Amino acid sequence: MSILLTGGLGFIGSHVAAVLQEHGQEVVLLDNLCNSQASVAKQLELLCAQPIPFYEGDVRDHALLDSIFSKHPITAVMHFAGLKSVAQSVQDPLLYFDNNVGGTITLLQVMQRHGIHQLIFSSSATVYGVPLYLPYDEAHPTKPINPYGRAKLQVEEILADLAISDKRWAIAALRYFNPIGAHPSYTIGELPNDQPNNLMPYINQVASKHRPFLTVFGNDYDTKDGTGERDYIHVMDLAEGHVAALRFLDTSAGLHTLNLGTGQPYSVLEMIQTFEKASGQTIPVQMGPRREGDLPIYYASAAKAQSILHWQAKRSLWEMCDSAWKFQLQHLRSLTASV
Ligand SMILES: NC(=O)c1ccc[n+]([C@@H]2O[C@H](COP(=O)([O-])OP(=O)(O)OC[C@H]3O[C@@H](n4cnc5c(N)ncnc54)[C@H](O)[C@@H]3O)[C@@H](O)[C@H]2O)c1
Fold first, then answer.
1. Per residue in 78-111, pLDDT tens?
2. CATH of the domain at 323
3. Each residue's pLDDT tens digit, 161-179
4. Above pLDDT 70, what percent of the chain?
5. Structural domain tally of the chain?
């Protein structure tokens, strides 16, 4: 029995693959490498000391999905494949609706044809939009403020209709907050192909002198120190949340929407200070203007995931920063060694 991970070579998918393997679960990986590298598949094989089937291809490719489901005894799918830049989604919304919504529809059609009804979908806290209250709980109204978030919400709506149409579907839409950090082997981590979309890869690049300074967008918000506050969650905690969700779906049909966060917001400056302590590096900072569409603060209520999945994030901000930096160092060493 195998689990198919679409986007399985990406940041979150690769960590979930490692944790599933640790639990004795076989995985099959599909990724078109638009934001990852084939070397991650090799790293995962080394980490898990066994071969892992990897298909380079697109989740919108019906024929490829058909052949994967025919070849492997797949019982469930974790659907990570997606584009994740809010700014890019504003510039090119069709790309986002095609890849993130269209890709999911193709996947669901092929799953249905092959009689596979267990799915974990990577949703996002961006579905909530401007907070009417905090922490966001799952009952908070959803009104995303950009095409990336709207594409996530559209998929959630499709999943809700699907679950009503056929009672065999067992689906978890996991609304991630801000995953950072790396696997304790430091051999997999967050490695975007182009300019990073998130704070931690930027900090890593400044710490390793690949960028001269970090721009902090806005220090005049109504938050504890004026900079934005987010609910950072260790990617290993997030990965363990997927294992708990998969177990839960074994006995729970329907669509289940759950936040995966810690419930604890940290500011950009707190994050930088913690990173500096964990890494021993100095992060030069320049204050910039607020970015269009950025929210001052948001964080999760983690209560539903705790009560339903019996799962709770347990790693600290320091562990997130420490592991992210150690991964960066290991990655740079491997690049130097391969020259
Ligand atoms: N990282 C975050 O902060 C965050 C927060 C909330 C939700 N999410 C969602 O979680 C999922 C995984 O995020 P991540 O941080 O690991 O991103 P990532 O970019 O590291 O991983 C996504 C992977 O999907 C692949 N991919 C994209 N489109 C594809 C397609 N059409 N066919 C096949 N492969 C494709 C990319 O090459 C990449 O390896 C995404 O759906 C993202 O929207 C991420």
1. 999 999 999 999 999 999 999 999 999 999 999 9
2. 3.40.50.720
3. 999 999 999 999 999 999 9
4. 99
5. 1
Ligand 1 probe mutation, 15, 122, 236, most atoms within 8 A of CB: 122
Average pLDDT, the chain: 96
Q: Roughly how many angstroms between the first and final C-alpha of the chain, as a whole number? A: 40
pLDDT value of position 131: 97
CB 249 within 8 A of CB 118: yes
Q: Which residues contact 54 (CB under 8 A, 6 or more apart)?
A: 8, 9, 28, 29, 30, 31, 38, 41
| Residue 74 φ/ψ, nearest 5 degrees | -80, 130
pLDDT digits (tens, 9 = 90+) for 107-124: 999 999 999 999 999 999
Residue ranges around ligand 1 (CB below 6 Å): 6-7, 9-13, 31-36, 58-60, 80-84, 99, 103, 122, 124, 176, 178-179, 198
User: pLDDT-based confidence at 339, cuts 50/70/90?
Assistant: low
Q: 33's torsion region: left (phi>0), alpha (psi -120 to 50) or beta?
A: left
Task: Find the 146 Cα to ligand 1 centroid distance in Å.
Answer: 17
Cβ atoms 86, 199 nearer than 8 A = no
Mutation to probe ligand 1, out of 15, 33, 34 (largest number of atoms < 8 A from CB)? 34
Tokens of 232: 């950072």
pLDDT in tens, 298-322: 999 999 999 999 999 999 999 999 9
- Beta carbons of 227 and 221 less than 8 angstroms apart: yes
Region 51-63 average pLDDT: 98
Candidates 184, 202, 192; CA nearest to 272 is 202
CB 5 within 8 A of CB 27: yes
| pTM, full prediction | 0.97
With left for phi above 0 and alpha for psi between -120 and 50, is residue 83 left, alpha or beta? Answer: beta
Vertex 183 angle, CA 180 and 184, to 5°: 125
Give the C-alpha separation, 198 to 120, whole Å: 23
Query: Residue 199: which domain range?
Result: 2-338
